[in-house]
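INFO worker-7 received task bundle
INFO bundle size: 2
INFO processing item 0
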Amino acid sequence: MRRLWLIGALVLLIGPVVTWSRFLEHHDIRRRASPIDAAQPTFAAYWRFLDEARRFVPEGSSYTINAANGDEETQLFMISAGLFGGVRPYPATFVWAPQPGGGREAKYVLVYGSAGCPSDATMMRLVKGGSICIRGER
């Protein structure tokens, strides 16, 4: 009788095991590094860069973003608005158009990818995905 109960319990567990194994074959449930990893890998790379850079930009200072093109600068700037509270933004490009001043007023220049630091930057700190260039007093 005991053996019959054990066999019956195992038969009942086969269904959920098969269902979960099929589910896990088609769904990626790993922990994400950013809120948008699964949906937008490009934006996730932007998020990781900005999250890393945020630690080096102090409250009350200012920043701008340099990237390879206006599209990247605009996307990075829009994402940074949510991560850089308490820091004054000076966009070099906004809504895909160069802005007056081009971000020259900012003390910290967040450089995404391989774009270079501005010539007036006195220090550079490397972060994952780019670098942070620090200008003299602003």
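INFO item 0 finished
INFO processing item 1
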Amino acid sequence: MFIVRIMRNNNVKRVDDFDPALRLLNGRLALAGAAPVHLVIALSPSDEELIAASQWAMTHDPSEGFRSALHELMKGLSRGHLVDRL
């Protein structure tokens, strides 16, 4: 699973340490000049992980504009085949 992979890659042992680990990884990518989307690319999530993350994100912003942005993100990540599942 996506979260488990992040935890393993950053030697995170407890779930409450997850957020700092994710921020650290994002910070490393930012120092390298990467945009936040590069975090998603670097972690290379599976289709199911991207769907789960997108569905979770939409619980926080159910607007049509956000859904459209997710559709464009999926297409930009060459995962356009997932759009119908959101």
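INFO item 1 finished
INFO post-check item 1: Residues 33 and 75 are 23 Å apart (CA to CA).
INFO post-check item 1: Residues 1-44 form one domain.
INFO worker-7 idle
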